[in-house]
Amino acid sequence: MPLSFCIVDDDGAARRMLQHIIEDSGLGEVAGTAESGQDGVRLILSENPDIVLMDLLMPDQDGIETIISLQSQGCRSKFVMISQIENGDMVSRAYRSGIEFFIRKPINKIEVESVLHKINERYALGRYLDEIKLSLGKLEGLQFGLPPVQASKRTVKEIIQPILMNMGMISESGSRDIITIMELAAAKENTDSLPPLKELYEMAAATYKTVPAEAAKEVKAIEQRLRRALAAGLTNLASIGITDYGNPKFEYYAPLYFDFEEVRLKMKEIEQGRESGKVKVNIKKFLQVLHLELMEGMNR
Prior knowledge:
Elements: E1 3-8, H1 12-24, E2 28-34, H2 37-47, E3 51-55, H3 63-72, E4 78-83, H4 88-96, E5 99-104, H5 109-140, H6 156-166, H7 174-187, H8 197-208, H9 212-243, H10 248-257, H11 260-272, H12 283-298
Parallel strand pairs: 1-2, 1-3, 3-4, 4-5
Helix pairs in contact: 2-3, 5-10, 6-7, 7-8, 7-9, 7-12, 8-9, 9-10, 9-11
């Protein structure tokens, strides 16, 4: 059964483009569209779609307020936020409100398809796991009082390492910093949101250096190692994309962890044989997405 979508965006052209991408790519069916947050609430509560594409900025109320309103009324749809805003705090608020992914405007067909394919996979996997849990629950009733076997949870390192390997950056020294940062973030009481970058760097530096002066110098070194590691990952994904645009690693990691426009620029550089060595990376976005994947992996 195809997934159902609703689109809420005050830009008519954006609504039409998203609808065409969804339907032409066979991703699902668009049950309805709305041009404001309040109209969107009414539409979504009426149609109960599987997935909602929600604009961040709208005249009456923003997308985050709309999502919170829907969730308070029992809505269980999956949300994808769409906006040209790149403010880190705003993106963090969006993720905390419960969105699955963040797509930046102007709308890019490849990026939208890649993100929505991933949402489709997660939705199907979720339904499959629910069925397994239901079956296991029934089987437990047949165990005649035997305690259920508890599966051991994966460590942060076990979850993060394969992701970094898939992006071709595990050999970079910054990968150690990324794993350390994720371990520290996972150990905090409030694991729903990621602390500011400076705080993360300082926490990681304190685990490497006990002398305050040395730890202060290490903060800058950590940032530099992260930039090199992310640049290596972006470059590797761009190389994969040139060879095979449909490669699952490229389709998933490139638009999710990096600004896709930067990936395309790097692909163009490589194709034209004029690599400058300069790569623009968004460390905050990368770590936020990785943290979300970590939390999802630890809760399985």
